[in-house]
Amino acid sequence: MSEQFDPDFNADIQQLKALMKVMDEITAKRVPLIDQTALVTNKNIRNLENWCSEYVFDDGDLVQDLKSAIIELKYLLSIITDLRERLKERDAEVSRLERLFHRE
């Protein structure tokens, strides 16, 4: 292994610059971030539904409790989604009123 290793650092520097640019845009909030709450909740709902389907022949208390939990999670997720939409609408209305106030 007496060969000389001459790495080309130019590609690494270009990748580092691209990564830094993406990080700057994310921290400046120019890139919309995904709502992680809905993703995690939907994953948990799917997992619970899978458990229910595995034990469908044993329609006991556990399966009924899992089905109730799934219904409650879906209901709460819809409430959270609705409240977030209302907050966005409220923020848009506040911004509109502020612009209107500053114009006059």
Sequence-ordered SSE layout with sheet pairings:
Layout: H1 9-27, H2 36-54, H3 61-103
Would you kindly provide a written description of the structure presented here, covering whatever features stand out?
This protein starts with 8 loop residues before the first helix and ends with a helix. α2 packs antiparallel against α3. The chain has three helices and no strands. The chain has a domain of 72 residues. With 104 residues, the protein is an all-alpha fold.
Give short descriptive properties of this protein.
mainly alpha, 104 residues, single chain
On the 0 to 100 scale, the average pLDDT is 79
The largest sheet, given as strand count, sense and whether it forms a barrel, is: none
Question: For the terminal residues, how far apart are their CA atoms?
Answer: 77 Å
Helix content range of the residues, please?
A: over 70%
Radius of gyration: 25 Å
> Which word captures the global form?
flat
Structural class estimated from helices and strands: mainly alpha
Topology, number of strands: 0
Please write the string of helix (H) and strand (E) elements: HHH
Query: What is the multimeric organization of the chains shown?
Result: single chain
Low-confidence region ranges: none
Treating each run of at least 4 consecutive H or I residues as one helix, how many helices?
3
- The amount of beta strand, in percent, is under 5%
